Queue: 2 jobs
Job 1
Amino acid sequence: MSTPLKINKSGRITSRMTGRMNSMENHPCFSEKAHDKFGRIHLPVAPACNIQCRYCIRKYDCANESRPGVSSRVFTVQEARERVSMLVERNEKISVIGIAGPGDPLANDATFEVLNSINREFPDLILCLSTNGLYLPDRLEDIVRAGVRSLTITINAVLPETGTEIYSWINYRGKKYTGTDAAEYLFANQWRGLRNAIDAGLIVKINSVFIPGVNDEEIPLIACLAGDKGADLMNIIPLIPQAEFSHLQRPTREMIHALREECGKYIPQMTHCKQCRADACGTIGEDRDMELEMLNARIGEEYCEMV
Ligand code: CLF
Ligand code: SF4
């Protein structure tokens, strides 16, 4: 069941579709026009992951690297709530609260506690999740109930054989899988989750990590399938050579540009991604240190109490 365009008697687009359009227009990642007008806060409440990508190194005490999978520390649910309350009031540009790790949001129950709580307190903020998709079919109802409006699924391959080169293992419903079994479960859930999320009215982006010599030939196929199923946007992310892929080259700008050109035939391409940290805060590319922002907010409050 796809989301119908709902138009009322006076010709106005209503309900869920208006929500979708607002979410797209005011989201700094989904809309290039919005990327310097609006900002986002990533809440690092999700340290655990349910799969192992061969390019991933997670760090929970890292101040000086700027890439996905790192954060200064992991927040408790209470800390995450406090930060949103304080920082949103001080920064009118924040339109999105996202959970993007440092692990997989759907492998951590704290994700849902935080989302439910923020949705109750700030229903106008766009809630955003980024996931590998393994648990998407299982948790979609919870995601929708928590008020999430935008979703990113990282899909790196279509063929299970390619999947074995990218993923060491997955852990699904208490069982560990490796090889093509792991890839088959993961891919089936990613595509099913994608279709269900679109049907549920979420705006959906696909992230694909461009791993030269491993999945470059499959990325256009991902673009074609995702576009065909109704995903809104694709973000081709150049590999950061590390972990088991430390011997590979990061793709050049020209390589990325050529692949985006090809994939753009099937689905709109994102070109302004900055591969953010799991605790990013502010506008894309002009991140602030969230702890420093909190300190300033507290000093400001104390000053107001004194005068
Ligand atoms: Fe964060 Fe991702 Fe939501 Fe954006 S980031 S969870 S969709 S609010 Fe954006 Fe950062 Fe690129 Fe991600 S620039 S890494 S695409
Ligand atoms: Fe790392 Fe994300 Fe892959 Fe998990 S899904 S291993 S957090 S890159």
Job 2
Amino acid sequence: MSNAKDIKYHGRILQVAVPCPLRRVFDYLPPVDYSEAPLQIQPGIRVLIPFGNRQVIGILTKVLSGSRLSKNKLKPVISVLDSEPLFTPAIFKILSWGANYYQHPIGEVFATALPSKLRSGNSLKADIIGWKVSTSISDSDRESLGRAYKQKALLEFIEAAEEGKGPATNDGCLAAGFSQQLLAQLHKKHFIERQTYAVSKSKPFNPIVVTADKVPDLNDEQCVAVAAVIDKLSGFCCFLLDGVTGSGKTEVYMRVMHEQLSIGKQCLVLVPEIGLTPQITARFAKRFACSVVSLHSGLSDTERLSSWDRARDGNAGIIIGTRSAIFTPMANPGLIIVDEEHDNSFKQQDGFRYSARDLAVMRAREENICVILGSATPSLESLHNARQKKFEYLQLTTRAGTANPPTMEVVDISHESLVEGFSAQLLYKIQQHLVANNQVLVFINRRGFAPILNCQSCGWISECENCVAQLTVHANPPSMRCHHCGTIRQLSKFCPECKSKDLTTIGIGTQKVERFLRERFSSTEVLRIDRDSTRSKFKFTEMLQKIERGEPCILVGTQMLAKGHHFPNITLVAILDADAGLFSADFRGQEQMAQTIIQVAGRAGRAERAGEVIIQSRHSTHAALQRLINAPYSEFANLLLAERKTAAMPPYSYLCLIRAEAADLASAHSFLIRAATITDEMCEVQELPVERLGPLPAPMEKRNRRFRVHLLLKSSNRGALQDLLRQLCGRMETLKHPRALRWGIDVDPQDLI
Ligand code: ADP
Ligand code: ZN
Ligand code: ZN
């Protein structure tokens, strides 16, 4: 605790967030060659500082008048890198809030929010370097120049420039015939000071936004939704747009965006998957004349910085991006949209484990603007918030235009002999749809050729030596890969245990399905879309273009295909195996299964041609599966919400998962035992209503040679849980542990694996 009497006052102190694993900020003195009142020094600028024996880039968080350290313990900042804050005040606030809420070191939080070029010290725009005469220079200093006429002339030149049209830029000095060396000489004597000046901003986008693109007339439900949002546009409001797949949610977004763009306000649109950005960017660019920029991991660092910068200075009207785009500053924010808000990918799964969806709501509140969360399968959290009237609920129950919802059918495969995962009935259907000149989508949520390699003689199974997991067989190039730690092994030709050559693969992955379908439907193109086949963005774009051309083809794909794509020519969607999700051990397992199935199914029949969905299952009469295909998603969600309420799980409680991993199970376990003891003590003394579960080995006990243990904290009182976490983190940071042990905190975890 900082205590007022501990503070020593010694002029200006700069408080800096340093990218390091410590949950605190650090005090520094201003740089030595800075005169008393440079305007530049304000929160949100980058500073280069000495840190240990390194130089690192930190973010200035506050300017104070004192420190708890005595002056001789404080080091000066080496240099100031920006002439104005990189973050808008709203971003600055949500980052500080986020560091606190997710219990993550603030220096790392700020670093996460910056494009990598800025993190590594590049200037935002090529800042202009200039010179000014030091305020401390005296007449005797001037006289000391004596007959150094050139230096005298330069000093006068800089002075005159200051009194005249503005700063003497470095280039200006050189152009006037002074050398860089001469400037360095004056600088060394502290007669002049270096200054950086921001180049002037690029122009705000042109608010005339209409293009010639044909705009459809809204249906009644769309009209209601658009009107409801427009009515509230003058301040903060969060909307949940619950609209079945193909109901025209994007059209609703665009009408609202139009409203804001036409008065010069920017719109930030978050999408779950980088693969979705080209389609949606094209759609927006066709509708709106203003500039559209995107921000995702597929861009080069320079492209990313440019998009970020154009958003920041108001030049970009529409900003489309994946998770981390939520930290993009906007000069004139007008609207935030989170499309497919239920999607897992909005939660960062390592380091700063933030939820971009939740931060979007925080940010909209901070910026006093509206946010729309859209989905055909809203998360239980958002549905709950809507029922609690924290969010405004908007519904689109029918498909837009002429498209009808697809018919859904469960095929019982418990007594079938399948060919590479396909029932005879399904193969017949595929044939029918192809003959009718349509496209078919086959969904299987496992990449690779097959999940297991097995010895027929002794029963050996290909396992990863670093993880508790099997090695997946890959066809191209032939290999065995661990999907958890990235280990790659040569494909065994014989069993390592008994030397038998009788090896077979068990189960199916996208590659096996692809090969089978190529043989079976040899005259039809088969496109595989998974993380392996789409590593290059060009390849993915090329495949999307092929699909858009509309010729008959079969798409084989994972989760990637389930997300938001609009493929008007797909009429049949086949889900090869729905059972994994039905019996998942994770508390969100059924929610995610339902979302995936409905989203994949939603790719069928999005245009004039009717769609059909076939779901293969060994448990075709399972109540959850039946409800899913026979009732709207909201009924399925009600069922799950009731279960969560009984079990006091989110959204009826708040969770925090503390993970520790180490080279051996015992040290990870004993570390969390100590954390558990501290937790119990605090809960008792402070009467905090927080429940502790564990420590227990994680469901995946070993990953990448490290043993993993979990401690789960749960409370129906978010404030109490936050109170506890703040104190607990502080204490845990001081616990001694083996060097190789790592621990982390996951507030509102997506899964408990
Ligand atoms: P969602 O985002 O809900 O999946 P989209 O906005 O992509 O749905 O709409 C699906 C299709 O319906 C698109 O081709 C879109 O142009 C069309 N559409 C949307 N609204 C209308 C409307 N009111 N009348 C006719 N067609 C519409
Ligand atoms: Zn064997
Ligand atoms: Zn592994």
